[in-house]
Amino acid sequence: MFSHPPFPPPRIGAVRYLNTKPLVHGLAARGIGVRYDLPSRLADQIAAGQLDVALIPVVETFRQADYRIVSDACIGCRGPVMSVKVFFRTPPDRVTTLAIDEGSRTSAALARILLAERFGVRPRIEPLPIEAGLGDTRADAVLLIGDRALDRGTGAGPAAARSFQLAWDLGDEWCRWTGLPFVFAVWAARPGIDTRATEPLLNAARDSGRANLAAIAAAEAAAHGLTVPQCLGYLRDNLHYELGPREREAISRFRDLVAKMGLLGESPASPGGRLRTATAS
To answer: What distance in Å separates the CA atoms of residue 75 and residue 262, rounded to the nearest whole number?
Structure first.
């Protein structure tokens, strides 16, 4: 059961995609306001002090060492995730350009790591604006995340994908390669933020969401161009919401690979590769 915090809660931000719905279930009804945005923008907002707690790309917890993971709720997978995909016009070992979804940070690093570690390629990175689709870039490979990767009118459907010869589900690729689950996003807090009342609320929201996946699917399917069974299957079978020991092991492995690639001080989604600071334009 939810309980109201004894004092005003921190400013909270969450990913606006379908995969977040089970993690925020019931928060609004309990008077907990949540700001929704892209993963990359949430990372910028918490870095700029505009948010106190946010569901941010896990790679940002590597780059900001003073962030604290404040809940055992997460967005992860233990196999195909369905909503994080790389589409290839050429074989992976011949990729020279990779277009990166503007909303992505963790998945952008993951795509680069898999290409480098498995095929020895380090493509030039191009940004893909959030309103653009697969047909708006001529890059050899294109990364789409979230609702765009699920398709249904966002440019990743069968017609748009005809010029591509291969598609990776990045969750599945990582799990098969490492034998570990993968964690895309975690609840994190800036330094100095008191989250003693917030953490149990976030955990309870996740538990409530998992217990009500069928209701969430029925409410959200049409808005995302999915049937209710498709939506329920995605939320129930493709996503994992708990940060357990294996997930923490996977985060540690991913961090080592991010460091090995020299991406700790970089933003993979930016053309120049540098991480924007809170004061950058």
So the answer is: 24
